[in-house]
Amino acid sequence: MSSRPFGLSRIKQVLPGQRGARGAASPDDTRQLGSLSKAYEESGLGWFWSTDREGRLTYLSEHIVKALADHGGEALGQTFAALFELDRETASSSQRTLPFLLGTHTSFSELHVCLAGRANESWWAVSGLPQHDAEGEFTGYSGHGRDVTETLRRERDASRLAMYDSLTGLANRHRMSRQLDTVLIAYQAAKRSCALMMLDLDRFKAVNDTLGHQAGDELLKQVAQRLRRVIPEGTEIGRLGGDEFQIILPDCDDRGELGELGHKVITMLSQPYSIDGSRCVIGASVGIAIAPYDGLTSEELVRSADLALYAAKGAGRGQYRFYSSDLHSHAEEMRQLEEDMRDALAEGQFRLAYQPIVALDGNKISGFEALLRWNHPERGEISPGVFIPIAEDAGLIGAIGEWALRQACIEAAQWEGEARVAVNVSPIQFANVGLPRIVASALAASQLDPDRLELEITESVFLGEGADTQEMFNALKRLGVRLALDDFGTGYSSLGYLQKAPFDKIKIDQSFVRGATEAGNRNAAIITAIVSLAGALEMETTAEGIEALDTLELMRKLGVSHVQGYVFSKPLDNDAVVERMAKGPLELEPEGPATHRSDRKTLLRMIGLIHEDHRYEVTMRNLSRTGAMVEGLIDVPLGTGFVVDFGEGQLAVATVKRSNGHRMGLEFEVPLISDGADGLCTRHRVSPYVLAAAGMPLAALPPGQYPLVGQEPNKSFSLPRFMQVDPSGENKRVA
Q: What is the average pLDDT across 383-412?
């Protein structure tokens, strides 16, 4: 395509270093300017352009015409704004579009533009001067441009290094902090919500220690890739450093959806990784906080998510946890428990309880699982789900685990008959090369037959599967003990290691047992597959957590060989086991509810019941996903509706399904959801924006309960419908 020559007068105006020239040009000047402009164009350092009054290009330097032709573009005759557009990254937020700027008929300088629709390929800095005729009428633009592609790329690379993690390509701590600040400020003004996930990898340090830091770096890259696949678009994912990640989820306050996403993240990150030919498995813990409920500023929200993450790790890892106000006291409690645990072993505060393992062929006891118990001198019984993770973090699990192993062997040797004892071995114990020696010593000291000792090992021992892992299995089997694969199917499953590891039994985790009898639940199909797999490998199976008769019958039907759970017996102390086994092989009769129902958590705390324009304080005795047992109101009719106030903005609509005196059973309209650990919560909460509109200060939700939202201060109330029982046990009518 040809283009008419660029006029000398225009060259003088727009050529760098010539703007503002005055006076008439001599012939020498003309020749010099012509040579200079031609050299300038041919060098590729810059180019000239001009338009008519409608903005159509009337001149373009030859090399830019060729560049446009290479992209399939026709230049002359098209408008300048049709060929080029402002670069979005360098344009300020207040800058108008290119057609608007050209329409002002004013000069501009060093605008960064790129080919329309072809961003991130090439960039130019263009300048332009409006041209006018003798009458002062606008006749078009003339200007020049220069290539700034490499300059911008270098600047953006430098900017990316400052804002993104060089290892994973995710946003870094600085960018995540800035993004969170920006989002929360904008969302507070718009009364929108934003969730924040804090994520920490479990057992990542072991990868660095066993496979090296280079393998650890490769693992972090794969973690980042998996996060990109599982996290929805429109979210910002960042690596804060080490093995800590952060995710910003805009416009999300549904704790049901967030819980599902948290579970999906944990499941995805817990699948095996291949690092330089080695197979390794890690886990993840997630803490979740939501603005404006758990914090209005980035500092508040990050602190809340951090506390939730700490609680998830303290509850056993591999979990997610939502923030709640009681986590502040929980963190201090965990710190104090760690200090107390350091003295617990020396002071004899630990003991073992034994839960029968029953062979379904005859309902006879085949063995007992040794369960560690901590009787704290001030707090009483502490749940293993609480103190075991603390012991692992504090480096105490090795000593406590060795004590449990030795004590279980000593006590099992006292039992009459051939019942086995199963003892859990933590991944930390399994990684100790001295484990076979410790087991041999415990067997020798107790004189227990090795075949009566069963070591339960979780799949996480295959973290860095290799020769050391296989040698450990071989060493243990040479002692004559049995090996059981514990918690099979909870996130680390692989058929590969079952080909090599010499397990005698697969234990089916109770998460697959719960709800297996419910219509539409797929757990029964999963259990069937596990039983078939175990049968093909000549292994036994044990289903954990059997509590209802219909679940027990289903396990028989599916071919499970052994079960354990409350349907046969709660854990027994050693004296009770000795007494039972002295009577010979025991056949247990199952007892329990006919059908499985949602787990009910026994508790005792005050909650609010709202009916019409009255609020009643009642005691909640137990709680499940679908309902609760409460007491405190007298003879409430069936079908009565209430709004249950659990505190911290959690409201649930419920209907009375059972009523007897001062006690009643409530059924929730919308089931509660798991908080990721050992509690239940509502999907949604009362927004602080709603509370602020009702007259309360705008702040993150404080602990406790709140007045009826929207209640008018001077409104006259109707008479209360129900008689209430106060804590002292006296009946009173609530005014």
A: 89
Distance (Å, whole) CA 240 – CA 220 = 12
Which one of 265-274, 311-320, 409-418, 590-599 scores highest in mean pLDDT?
409-418
**Contact of 563 with 543, CB cutoff 8 Å:** yes
- Tracing tokens 């699990």 back to the chain, one arrives at 397
Short-list 525, 536, 590, CA closest to 558: 525
Q: Count of CB atoms within 10 A of residue 258's CB?
A: 23
Single-letter amino acid, residue 489: G
Let me know: does 123 contact 149? Beta carbons within 8 Å. yes
What does the alpha-carbon distance between residue 206 and residue 469 come to, in Å, rounded to a whole number? Answer: 14
Instruction: Indicate whether 607 pLDDT > 60.
Output: yes
CA quadruple 336, 339, 341, 343: dihedral positive or negative? negative
Q: Higher pLDDT residue, 269 or 77?
A: 269
* 212-242 confidence digits (pLDDT tens): 888 899 999 999 999 999 998 889 999 999 9
> DSSP readout, 176-218?
HHHHHHHHHHHHHHHT--EEEEEEEEETHHHHHHHH-HHHHHH
The DSSP call for residue 551 is H
Total residues found in the chain within this entry: 735
- pLDDT beyond 60 at 92: no
CA of residue 504 relative to chain centroid, distance: 35
3-state SS assignment for residue 568: coil
> Is 0.85 topped by the overall pTM?
no
CA 510 to chain centre: 22
Between vectors from CA 485 to CA 480 and to CA 491, what angle results, nearest 5°? 160
User: Residue 680 — φ and ψ, nearest 5°?
Assistant: -125, 155
- Give residue 674's Cα distance to chain centre: 14
- Calpha distance 98→87 (Å, rounded): 10
Instruction: Using the predicted structure, report yes or no on whether residue 457 has a pLDDT greater than 80.
Output: yes
The set of residues, in sequence order, having a beta carbon less than 8 Å from that of 137 and lying 6+ positions away, is 53
Distance CA 238, CA 199 (A): 10
Can you give 600-666 as a three-state secondary structure string?
CEEEEEEEEEEECCEEEEEEEEEECCCEEEEECEECCCCCCEEEEEEECCEEEEEEEEEEECCEEEE
- Domains in the chain: ranges and CATH: 8-154 (3.30.450.20), 164-325 (3.30.70.270), 341-581 (3.20.20.450), 601-733 (2.40.10)
pLDDT of residue 435: 94
- pLDDT given for residue 273 in this prediction: 87
